[in-house]
Amino acid sequence: MQIDFKFLLLTILFLIIFGVIFCCIHRQTSNSSEQTLTKLILKVPPTLSQLIGIFFVGLASFFLVFSWWYTPIVQLNCTRSILNKPFINNNIPHPVCEVVEFNWFGYEKLKKIIADLQGVKLERKTETDKEGKVSYKYQVILINNTDNITFRTVDYSKGESEKYQSVISTIETFLAESLQTSLVFQEDDRDIGYFGVGISLFLGVLSLLIITSSPSIICSFDKEANLMTLIRSRWFGIFGNLVIQYELDEIVDVNVENTDSEESIVYRVVFVLNSVEILPLTYVYSSGSASKYQIAKMIKNFLKTSPESINT
Fold this sequence. Notes:
Layout: H1 5-29, E1 33-35, E2 39-44, H2 47-69, E3 73-79, E4 96-102, E5 108-114, E6 119-128, E7 134-143, E8 148-150, H3 161-176, E9 182-188, H4 190-213, E10 216-222, E11 227-233, E12 241-247, E13 251-260, E14 265-273, E15 278-280, H5 289-304, H6 307-311
Antiparallel strand pairs: 1-2, 2-10, 3-4, 3-9, 4-5, 6-7, 7-8, 10-11, 11-12, 13-14, 14-15
Helix pairs in contact: 1-2, 1-4, 2-4
C-alpha cells in the first residue's frame, strides 16, 4: 500500500492547527470561578501563551493556504495532426494546446484550451510604487487566431529570465518543427510549496508546544481545612503538577502588582503572606487591570467572611 506523503503531511498540519484551537477553547472555557459557603476555586488559563500560540498558528495557516493556492506546476500539452491537415503553401499546421496549472498538492486549478496556437511572445509590465520606483514584471503570451492567453497566472520577475526564455524557445522550436507532432513542457516550482508547508509545520508545532507547555493555574481556598492550594500544571498535568499550600491564616492581604512594559502597564495578582513573602498567582504580568482587581476583590471578600458568620 503506497502512502500519499502530501496527504499525510496535510492531515498532520490540520490536526496540529485544530489541536491548538481546541486547547485554546478548552482552557478559555475553564477560565471561571466556583464558590460555595466554605470553598472558592479559581481557574486561570495562560492568556499570554494562548495569544502567542494563536498568532503562530495564524501564520502557520497563512503558509498552508499559500502552499495550497500557489501554482508551482504549469504544464503545456500540444498536439499537431500533420496527416489530416496537409501543408498549404509550406505553412505548418497549427497545433491544439492546453495549459494546465496544478497546486503543490497535485490538484488541478486551471485549464486553458488554445485551439490554434500560432506564436508566442514576451510581454513586459511596468509597475510604479508610491515612491516612484519603477519595477518590471514579465509574462509569456500564447497567440492564437482569436485572442492572446497567458502561459501562467503568476507573472515572472526580472530574476526569472531563464525560466520565461526557456518557455519561449521551447514553443518556438516546436512551432518551427513541421514533423514534431506533440509537445509536453512543464515548469515545476514545487520547491516553493515544500518551503511553505515546512514553515507551516514548524509554526504549527511551535504554537502547540507553547500552549500545551504553558502553566495552567488552579487556586482553591478551603475554610474548613483552613488551606489555600495553588496548583500549576503543564502539559495538562501529564508530567506532574507544582503544588503550593499555605494556611489561610498566613495570608495577610491580596494585592495587584503592576509594572511598565515597553508599550503599556501590565498587572498580576499577588498574595502577601505574614512572613512578608510575596506569592504571585501568576508569574507572568499581563494587560487588563480590571480582571486582576476583580479576582483580588473576590478573594478578599471570601477570606473576610468567616465560616461561623456564614453558618449563622
